[in-house]
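As a warm-up, study this chain.
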Amino acid sequence: MKTFVELDIENNGNYRKLLSAVSKLSGLFSESSIPYINYRIAENIFCNCFNAENLSRSDTAFDANYNSIGIGLKTFVCPTDSKTEKIAEFNMLSNKLKDFKGKDLAYKLAEYRNERIELAKRIYNIKKSFYHIVARRDSKLLLFETDYEKIDISKIQNVVQNNTSLKFNDNNNSYSFNFSKSTLFRKFDIPKNVYELPVDIIDDPYSLLLDLFKDKIFKPADNKLVRGKNYIILPLYSTNKDGKYVPEKSGLNHWNAGGRPRDIGEVYIPIPAKIHYYCPDFFPDINTSFDLTIPTGEILSAKVCQQNKKALMTNPNNALSDWLLRKVLQVSEGELLTIDKITELGFDSVIIIKDKNNKYKIDKAKIDSYKGFIENICY
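Now compare it with the structure written out below.
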């Protein structure tokens, strides 16, 4: 495959133009001669210019999906020939990780990291992957791609642990793990054939912005996510005095409920009463079918069911279990889903997005997303 710089050269160069334009405005944020680009801006520019699917809000292993290629997007200051950057956080697994040390800890970190990469591949139908880097130096940007592979557990070596961190490599890349932040880092090397994009930072960006917007009327954005109006978060769990748990006989384990014979794929995503209270118009009426698109683009027929509209189900019902339980979470038939299982994979909620035509999309959401959603919508 061609590099993204090569693709950009063939398509009017808008990617480099936009990166350069944003970099020129660095004086708004910093007095440094090193261009400043917020990582979210870099992600949005990339996805806009290459028509890639932006995955950043789903907090998955990849930041973008370009024609079934998973892209990790990184932008960082790099005055030397290499830089160590964060690639994964394991805050919710810190209590488990503290029981491991040395090489055993390196193996466990690699296992968790690899599981999350495989999860993202399953959800978004990713066939291969790599990193696209925007490294920043004095008056220039360095653009290049590098490998994005799972950690080779069989080749883990040179493990060194001290009071604050663990370091190791796998013959391909060097990694380090910060204990206090439960964060995994990787070393990125700048290649010799890197593409250099010169940047002249504007001396007075404020006047430029005033002139740009003077006496001009711009169309306001109508596609922004508004909490409770065009998106909600649903939990895959319940709570009690001991914390989160996945009920053994309801929700995604509803196939295990008593009372009557049930199909092994009979499941639903729970809709808490608070969702209906604070977002009463988000879903259609009970038992009214609507299209629900999963991240691979497949469209499921869904509806809100059961007493108090507590269940999001699909028709056929096992379409939901085939996607979420079998493919995404890899729960076998007859196996109970547990909170430990979804926590290890790094998500415990899903986001539902509704467009202006009342078409719905579903995707994974990071751990504690539902809690944050409800806390913010209540006020």
